[in-house]
């Protein structure tokens, strides 16, 4: 039976989230592609920021509506046959973040690393919350 | 009602799907499809369906074995395929409408509680006119509820469905290219590109890659595995060669079967400049600089060098920007400088005037180029427009710039002047000696007390010779002169 699963791990937190710093965080995906050794995992932002973190609608007066730089995403695996193109800049377009031509996944963990470069001149008021939704597609 | 018949590739999957099609959907739902804890998943993930529109496909079972509820959205998409084999789709309103005309899904939105399971029905409605085969996807989007972090995750599972009409559908494919590239140190990667030129989803089989040396001897041989290609699409099948091949000339040949009785072959020659080392074009740009004077254009200079082992081509794009005090940049001028087939080891000097009538302020010249390996590079040179130099400042600039040369010239000049002075002095002595000789030949003389002490000595009129018979001229006897000083004897005392 062809079976495909994709599940996100615990919530991802970004540390060092302040102007002049690079915020980073790590997450995990658990994936299964039974009977399907050839698969592709892609990432995109289907929201309004097109890859950029967006300020909340309230409590962000005086802050930049979206961050200047896109969120960087890198997916890695301990499995030898999994190809990773490296770090991508998230955008509205689907981009491959991991793939394999001969590697069945059976509830295997893929590590997701996020980094957000925040320039020193980024306008971010205290209390303003920025967020983004990363859409992963497994095929 | 039309009866759907599933045919799949490869054969193992074909058999499996045929078995799936033989079971009613209830059977699929009855058996728990997942034994995986904490998962949002579906089954089946792929279908090969041969039938006619109006067919109900085997439903998709969606399960949630995680501890969070999932909001699930389901929608059909028309699939395309890229060179890596990955399927893509667009979500414009037109594309969504086109997908819904082919495939209907229901329900398209629901909440799946923890431990929940739901079946989604799929109905094949139609095919576009003239199309006998189509790749359709169904996206199952699951959003775990109560996500509130800075980075939230949406999981999408793409179910792939190959829909074909029954009957003889042309199957054909061909190689469109075969290239070798350096894939890391000591690894060659060959990429046979295959295009599905038929009308049915198909995959190449019995793929082989053979490498022969210049004598025709096979030095490497391997098999490669094909995968599905949708009609009209092209796909690369990477083959890595780690076996060390020495420097020399070779020919790589890829072969495959695409459809019954179809054997396709493609060859390409290649040269290694070292063990598993392909000639690699590499470009470097250095000595990048820019200057400008007030009211004039900027002069951008640099050197473009071919530093690889194969001829390299590159287009260097120059941009001149004005940097305002608040940091904003305004583009003033751009230029594209193409350099074609630069031989390894060669270089070209860049010198380009950009913009004009530059005002006082800060500027940047930016050079960007895409290297032969596809990487993008940028160099920046910051500069200010300066006032023009006066002649004196230009002279002083030259002096300070060439201090050693100026010192050497001064030393040479000093030596030359000294030598000239010595020569003149010696000549003067010689002349004086000659003059003295001339005077000595003409007779003794007394220095003329009235003459200048160091003036030229003129020959005096010789006195007539005194004969014995000649009376001495009458002249008063000399009066003894009083004792006078020597100086007064020469110059007089001034009281005469």
Describe this structure in words.
The complex is a heterodimer of chains A (139) and B (496). Chain A has 139 residues and is mostly beta strands. Chain A has a single domain, classed as Immunoglobulin-like (Sandwich). In chain A, 0% of the residues lie in helices and 44% in strands. Chain A contains no helices and 9 strands. The radius of gyration of chain A is 16 Å and the shape is elongated. The two termini of chain A are 15 Å apart. In chain A, 43% of the residues are buried. With 496 residues, chain B is of the alpha+beta class. Chain B has 3 domains: 160 residues, Immunoglobulins (Immunoglobulin-like, Sandwich); 100 residues, Immunoglobulin-like; 104 residues, Immunoglobulins (Immunoglobulin-like). The termini of chain B are far apart. The interface between A and B is large, with 46 and 44 residues. Strand 9 of chain A pairs parallel with strand 12 of chain B.
At CATH level 2, the architecture of the largest domain in chain B is: Sandwich
Given the C-alpha coordinates, what overall shape of chain B results? Answer: elongated
Round the Cα radius of gyration of chain A to an integer and report it: 16 Å
Sheet/helix structural class of chain A: mainly beta
Radius of gyration of chain B: 51 Å
CATH-derived topology of chain A: Immunoglobulin-like
């Amino acid at each position: 039976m062809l079976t495909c699963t994709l599940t996100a791990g615990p919530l991802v937190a970004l540390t060092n989230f302040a102007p002049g710093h690079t915020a980073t965080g790590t997450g995990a995906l658990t994936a299964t592609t039974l009977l399907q050794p050839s698969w592709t995992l892609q990432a995109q932002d289907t929201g309004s920021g097109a890859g950029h973190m967006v300020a909340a609608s309230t409590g962000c007066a005086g802050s930049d509506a979206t961050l200047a730089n896109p969120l960087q995403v890198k997916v890695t695996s301990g499995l030898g046959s999994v190809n990773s193109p490296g770090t991508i800049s998230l955008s509205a377009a689907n981009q491959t973040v991991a793939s394999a031509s001969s590697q069945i996944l059976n509830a295997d963990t893929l590590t997701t690393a996020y980094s957000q470069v925040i320039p020193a001149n980024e306008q971010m008021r205290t209390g303003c919350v920025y967020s983004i939704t990363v859409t992963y597609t497994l095929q | 009602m039309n009866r759907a018949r599933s045919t799949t590739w490869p054969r193992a999957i074909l058999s499996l799907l045929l078995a799936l099609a033989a079971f009613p959907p209830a059977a699929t739902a009855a058996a728990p499809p997942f034994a995986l804890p904490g998962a949002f998943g579906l089954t089946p993930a792929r279908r090969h369906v041969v039938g006619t529109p109006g067919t109900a496909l085997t439903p998709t079972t969606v399960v949630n074995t995680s501890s969070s509820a999932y909001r699930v959205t389901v929608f059909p998409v028309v699939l395309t395929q890229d060179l890596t084999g990955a399927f893509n789709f667009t979500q414009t309103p037109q594309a969504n409408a086109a997908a819904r005309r082919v495939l209907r899904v229901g329900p398209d939105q629901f909440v799946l509680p923890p431990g929940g399971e739901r079946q989604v029905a799929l109905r094949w409605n139609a095919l576009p006119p003239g199309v006998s085969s189509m790749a359709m996807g169904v996206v199952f989007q699951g959003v775990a509820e109560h996500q509130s972090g800075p980075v939230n995750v949406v999981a999408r599972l793409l179910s792939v469905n190959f829909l074909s009409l029954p009957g003889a559908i042309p199957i054909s494919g061909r190689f469109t290219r075969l290239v070798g590239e350096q894939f890391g140190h000591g690894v060659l990667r060959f990429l046979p590109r295959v295009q599905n030129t038929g009308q049915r989803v198909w995959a190449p089989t019995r793929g082989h890659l053979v490498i022969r040396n210049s004598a025709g001897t096979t030095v490497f041989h391997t098999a490669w595995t094909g995968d599905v290609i949708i009609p009209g699409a092209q796909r690369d099948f990477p083959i890595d060669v780690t076996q060390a091949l020495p420097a020399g000339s070779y020919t790589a040949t890829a072969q495959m079967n695409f459809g019954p009785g179809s054997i396709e072959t493609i060859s390409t020659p290649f040269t290694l400049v070292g063990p598993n080392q392909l000639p690699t074009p590499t470009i470097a740009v250095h000595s990048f600089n820019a200057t400008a004077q007030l009211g004039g254009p900027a002069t951008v200079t640099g050197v473009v060098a071919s530093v690889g082992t194969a001829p390299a081509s590159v287009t260097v794009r120059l941009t001149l920007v004005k940097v305002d005090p608040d940091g904003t940049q305004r583009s003033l001028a751009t230029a594209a400088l193409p350099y074609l087939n630069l031989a390894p080891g060669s270089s070209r000097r860049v010198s380009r005037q950009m913009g004009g009538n530059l005002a006082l302020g800060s500027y940047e010249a930016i050079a960007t180029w895409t290297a032969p390996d596809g990487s993008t590079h940028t160099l920046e040179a910051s500069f200010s427009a300066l006032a023009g130099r006066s002649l004196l400042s230009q002279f002083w600039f030259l002096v300070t710039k060439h201090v050693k040369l100026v010192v050497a010239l001064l030393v040479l000049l000093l030596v030359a002047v000294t030598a000239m002075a010595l020569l003149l002095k010696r000549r003067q002595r010689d002349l004086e000696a000659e003059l003295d000789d001339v005077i000595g030949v003409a007779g003794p003389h007394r220095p003329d007390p009235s003459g200048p002490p160091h003036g030229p000595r003129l020959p005096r009129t010789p006195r007539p010779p005194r004969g014995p018979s000649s009376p001495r001229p009458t002249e008063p006897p000399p009066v003894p002169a009083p004792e006078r000083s020597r100086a007064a004897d020469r110059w007089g005392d001034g009281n005469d």
